[in-house]
Design brief:
Blueprint (H helix, E strand, L loop, with lengths): L26 H4 L53 E3 L13 H9 L6 E3 L10 H13 L1 E2 L6 E2 L13 H9 L6 E11 L5 E12 L14 E10 L8 E7 L8 E6 L4 E4 L8 E2 L2 E2 L13 E14 L12 H4 E2 L2 E2 L6 E13 L9 E7 L5 E7 L5 E12 L4 E11 L4 E7 L8 E2 L11 H9 L1
Antiparallel strand pairs: 1-2, 3-4, 5-6, 5-21, 5-22, 6-7, 7-8, 8-9, 9-10, 11-12, 13-16, 14-15, 16-17, 17-18, 18-19, 19-20, 20-21
Length: about 450
Amino acid sequence: MTRTAFTSVLLSLGLLLPLAAQAKVSAEQAAQLSGTLTPFGAERQGDAGKGIPEWTGGMTQAPAGYGGPGSFHVDPFADEKPLRVIDAQNMDADAANLSEGVKALLKTYPQTFKLPVYPSHRSFAAPEDVYQNTATNAQKAELGGSGYGLVGAYAGIPFPIPADGRQAIWNHIARWQGRYIDEVAVTAQVTTSGSYSLLRERIQLLSNYYNPKKSADSLGNRLYFFASELLPPSRDVGRALLVHETIDQVAEPRSAWIYNPGQRRVRRAPTLAYDTPIDGIYADDTDMYNGATDRYDWKLVGKQSLLVPYHNYAMEKPGRKVDELVKPGHLNSDLTRWEMHRVWVVEATLRPGQRHVHAKRRFYLDEDSWYALMVENYDSRGELWHVNLAFTKNAYEVPVITPVNIVFHDLIARTYTVIGLRNNEKAPRQFLLTPPPENYFTPASLRRKGTQ
């Protein structure tokens, strides 16, 4: 459960589909992944009318001036200027290009929230072995008997040609985001006035699903291992958390342990799932969505061309002060970048008899990477309540689409939480080739990590 690490109409209702709809695709369908579709199932062709280019393989080489792994990224599009800037006064001209959540933010902050619109670039790429595994998954992966887990999927997108909403959200949950992540980042909880409190932590995520030494049969119902430790100047410095993320969380809920330096002992953490509050957001909001899918009916609405946050290198400029980025109501709009991309739209509706503060949710999954770039969350009255935005970049040395900052907006309270502030750290998020051994992510080692 990463904080930083824990988007033609296809009709479906994930829990009500017949078994055939949840089965693998045919060899003929899978062959499209090397033809009209990209290896991850996106349309290769562009849309000139919308300003969406053709996908030609993505960005697989770093631009000139990049210092290599461990360095902050050079913006390959730094010389580009906005094509236009959308605000509350002119937004009607772009109504078809805006999600309901973005429209709500424009109306809520009419004087300050803006969308600088830039040329679109389909830079997404992944390693060749991840492409190959995705092609294999297309013909082998299935939802488990309960529909809440994966069977036959490994180290690639499980369902590159999705049949329903549950398969699509699993593509986000199990998307390629690197094998091992290690970073130090700051979270800011921002009040209505723009004042904020900061929480700084080290985060490590080791993917079991993308472990090159594993297979679909040897995952042991483990998706990834996650560890975090609070660092100065946070309160509770030294508090450490360990999570073992399961694939089928209905059959086996995630396991979590916490080390409290004041008590100097490791104990089982309380339930960290669904709508458990965590540092200004909810547990299953982290990573835009994570965890069990059983409380919702899932519908794959279809595909749209929308303006989404993309290639936000400027937000992560080294040395940029928090006050330059964090403003009342939202991040500094002048430092954001929006592009036109195709997204899959997935709706989740709370099932009868289930409980969650979000009665309905709408996800916009990036067609190229399967990352949920925008999420809209509605309350029990049907009112739009929380709008979450993932401002992304291409970590081209991996390569992978990864978040710079993720922002969780509360439209009613007019507050927000932003995670992933790394401007004043020594390095951005690190994608390392040599992870620690799995026994590093054990309760037995948690106390040692909390006192280092």
